[in-house]
């Protein structure tokens, strides 16, 4: 909530605003008021994306805006209000999306018909115009209920076009005329069919002529809505704001042609409709109805048949810009704005140049570590954004493969840099730390955050168990090298490396099989989980832009990762903390911060399939793909990277996976389970804070002893506090 919105909620200001609105409505009611007003409620999805919220919240706010505008119209004594709610063309969308839109429609209809709501207070008769036979039975039941509840209201009419297109309406009218013929054997005289004949068989046959049609979001299209009813006297207005932003103060200029002495020259009347021509000609003519300023500040819509309950946003960098250098510059600025506003974490991008400069000028090692640590966090978010945008342009299967491959790209880049520098301990600790932080901290925060809002949440038990089974296999792949190392002489490192490389090849094969399982043979199991991420359905930048951004961000991450790794030795020597703690606790924060925020956010909004998929799926990807890949890469570059972890580390991973498998086996979660997981992670963090494997690459033994005493004293004081 913005500061202005918070201030406006102050009771005296609310009273003043309400009084001013009532006075304004009273003044407007004294002049000519349109009898029939229609709205194309466009821009809910782009409003949600612009404000960093879920698409469903954008639709919810759009419905609240519709109720407010409807109340304004009723207070102005507008007799008929028609809204475009759902196009027949929207049924061509994926099934999961259509089902989601139907749920929203069912909820909205129930609210409209509730006792004491607008329809009840203002005597509004709610009518559903369209091919209602196409909707599911439960939605059809909601339609029949709200229609029955409000059928005796006579003061005003609310027409909800759902599901509707003007072409379908005209076709329905023609069929009604034919079926109404008194003599089936006698053909209908074409000369007997007039404009009045067709008008009397439309869904709006008993409504007055359309006086005013309003479309928000700055899009200048009719979208196959009310084409017959839009006549020579109809005023069409395109408003340059999203529908949830449309209020009384934006509605006031729309009514000025009816209240002011001078006509609004920015509103051009539609051309004289040729009543008996095909609807396609009407749409082509209607696109030239008005000349209003298009939105230069955001992407435009490509799908012109999804007015209220959903729309796929267009691409920044399209054809809505003037030609030449000025248009190129405007397009570049819009694209840059979309990229920078893709995530709130991008505010940390200021640390990217600072981190690179600090590393190149050899500043204090601790400062270099901190600056590059903060710099990689927003770069990780941008890398995920670029990957998702590029995946939308290459198809579902290849896009899913890209998301799976680059899902943990930052951790992979940091680990590769560390591996090439011989920092095997950092690589192993960062892999283990990423797994633990995802399955314990992130999953625990998801359960806890969602549990604060919902008593109990459910998720896809089959998918979660599949990923947990794979995690158990990955854990076994670490237990076996540890058991092998304990059973053979300590100097037999060659056999251990050979075992690790063989196991890594098997794990990579299992990971490929899992991708084939997820993307091909059992894709239906994951369709619901993927459908919850609505933002992935909107392409906001071009494929070339996304590809270029991916390359640039990868290079920047490589630079920052190199300076980060180079500063670890000096940081360990100066602070006394171990490399294990740096790799296991600190480095996982770098690559997973944006992903962690996303998973907790969607869990709080009751999208647990997506939250569990992010947390456990990311851990599984690290265990089955990244860790064995680094072993093979170490084999290629001559670094002795193996799957042998210290006994304590292996035991911690085994216990963690066991606890997670036990908690998710019922497919349900609550806040207590989240607290348990976070508690386990806190215990492990304290243990690794004090844990130091005997590693010659760490600080010398004396400094280890001294630092242990200092750290123990600090931890003791912290616990006592």
UniProtKB/TrEMBL annotation:
EC number: 2.5.1.87
Intracellular or extracellular location(s): Endomembrane system; Endoplasmic reticulum membrane
SUPFAM superfamilies to which the protein is assigned, alphabetical: Undecaprenyl diphosphate synthase (SSF64005)
GO CC term, one of those recorded: endoplasmic reticulum membrane
Record-annotated Sodium/calcium exchanger membrane region domain positions: 365-519, 548-688
Membrane-related topology note: Multi-pass membrane protein; Peripheral membrane protein
The entry's keywords: Calcium, Calcium transport, Endoplasmic reticulum, Ion transport, Magnesium, Membrane, Transferase, Transmembrane, Transmembrane helix, Transport
Cofactor(s) this protein requires: Mg(2+)
Pfam families in the cross-refs: Na_Ca_ex (PF01699), Prenyltransf (PF01255)
The organism's place on the tree of life at top rank: Eukaryota
Sequence intervals crossing the membrane: 338-361, 367-386, 398-420, 426-450, 462-484, 499-519, 540-564, 570-590, 610-637, 643-664, 671-691
Pathway the protein contributes to: Protein modification; protein glycosylation
Record's subunit section: Forms an active dehydrodolichyl diphosphate synthase complex with NUS1.
Annotated function: With NUS1, forms the dehydrodolichyl diphosphate synthase (DDS) complex, an essential component of the dolichol monophosphate (Dol-P) biosynthetic machinery. Adds multiple copies of isopentenyl pyrophosphate (IPP) to farnesyl pyrophosphate (FPP) to produce dehydrodolichyl diphosphate (Dedol-PP), a precursor of dolichol which is utilized as a sugar carrier in protein glycosylation in the endoplasmic reticulum (ER).
Family affiliation: Belongs to the UPP synthase family. Belongs to the Ca(2+):cation antiporter (CaCA) (TC 2.A.19) family.
Protein name: ditrans,polycis-polyprenyl diphosphate synthase [(2E,6E)-farnesyldiphosphate specific]
Species assigned in the record: Saitoella complicata (strain BCRC 22490 / CBS 7301 / JCM 7358 / NBRC 10748 / NRRL Y-17804)
